[in-house]
Design a protein that fits this description.
heterodimer; A: mainly beta; 7-stranded mixed sheet; 4-stranded antiparallel sheet; globular; B: mainly beta; 6-stranded mixed sheet
């Protein structure tokens, strides 16, 4: 039973290019969360998605960032026109859903995608 | 006020010591609570859930105080391998979906 799969593990982009990060949740999980972690800082929530729906995007920057979780295929976090400040580790996590509590509380994380912007 | 607050540390303790971390949360409607562990440059992993009655897992004890809105993690007989960042996590069911909030994490360094 594969865990949360993220790719690429490492991505290098020049300023102005686009970055696409992919996340395949654990089997049976329909909820996906994206977090960003800057060096020596905590996890910052970005977006929470269910299949074909964005549930909560309150942590997403207003520009250049978008996320989707299509009916088929992985969730994608897309960063357009990257800047140096986008350099970070981007973690994806999945969970079973909302009911019943507290069993669904656990998030399973992928190993992260480390973006470096030159 | 932050939704979940933790002292970032670092806590430097000798092997064998007992160390305790606290975490406070602001939303009284929070429903479930967890401690995660994150090793350097790795993904966070669930350490333990936190139940109202308190729970223990080997050297680790977690407690919840709903009245004061804080949770705690106690580590007894610290090992070098306990060195990591400990993340407090609080879940709120909102609009039919769970909102998961992480604290900034408390860094623990166990010294030989």
């Amino acid at each position: 039973n594969a865990g949360v799969m993220q790719n690429p593990r490492h991505l290098v982009r020049r300023r102005g290019q686009e970055a696409r990060l992919r996340c395949s949740p654990m089997k049976g999980h329909s909820h996906v969360y994206w977090y960003r972690q800057l060096p020596e800082e905590g996890l910052k929530f970005m977006v929470y998605l269910q299949k074909e729906n964005i549930i909560d995007e309150s942590g997403m920057p207003k520009e250049r960032f978008s996320a989707e979780f299509p009916k088929e295929g992985p969730s994608i976090l897309r960063i357009q026109q990257v800047v140096r400040g986008d350099s970070a580790a981007y973690f994806c996590a999945s969970s079973k859903g909302t009911a019943p509590f507290p069993n669904t509380g656990e998030l399973f994380f992928g190993e992260g995608s480390r973006l470096t912007v030159l | 006020r932050k939704e979940v607050e933790q002292d970032p540390g670092p806590f430097n303790v000798p092997e064998g010591a007992t160390v305790a971390f606290n975490c406070t949360y602001s939303n009284s409607a929070s429903q479930s609570f967890f401690w995660y562990r994150q090793d350097c440059r790795k993904e966070p992993k669930l350490l333990m859930s936190v139940y109202s009655s308190g729970n223990e897992d080997g050297r680790f004890t977690a407690q919840l105080n709903r009245a004061s809105q804080y949770i705690s993690l106690l580590i007894r007989d610290s090992k070098l391998s306990d060195s990591a960042t400990y993340l407090c996590v609080v879940n709120v069911l909102s609009g039919g979906y769970q909102k998961v909030t992480f604290g900034i994490g408390t860094k623990l360094q166990v010294i030989p």
